[in-house]
Design the sequence.
């Protein structure tokens, strides 16, 4: 059964986009953790499409956040280079795996990651 497309007004998307951007910029990440549930619940996107859309949205957002941090905070550029290469590799592997897993499996993995992150943040 095909899901019915739900189109929200542009200003609703802009409000949620601003919230996601604020969280990503303020915390240095985590926008995708907010974007995926919003895309699933508000935009009614299928699970895999919500994850893929969140990544597509987070990419330019991360570039802007990186620029802001670069001009205001000193970096260890060797660490940045190593992590950038590793993250790129991990992103490719994760993207390929996303295509192969069922939507239910992706939803369970995402829920476990969010739960684990929440517990970790409370404990630490």
Sequence:
């Amino acid at each position: 059964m095909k899901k019915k497309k739900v189109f929200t007004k542009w200003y609703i998307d802009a409000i949620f986009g601003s919230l996601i951007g604020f969280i990503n910029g303020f915390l240095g990440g985590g926008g995708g953790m907010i974007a995926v549930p919003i895309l699933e619940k508000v935009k009614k996107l299928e699970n895999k499409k919500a994850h893929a859309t969140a990544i597509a949205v987070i990419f330019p957002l991360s570039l802007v956040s990186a620029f802001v941090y670069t001009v205001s905070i000193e970096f260890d550029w060797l660490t940045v280079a190593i992590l950038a290469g590793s993250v790129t590799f991990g992103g490719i592997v994760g993207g390929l795996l996303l295509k192969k897993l069922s939507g239910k499996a992706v939803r369970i993995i995402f829920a476990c990651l969010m739960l684990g992150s929440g517990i970790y943040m409370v404990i630490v």
User: Anything to note?
Assistant: The chain has a mean pLDDT of 85.
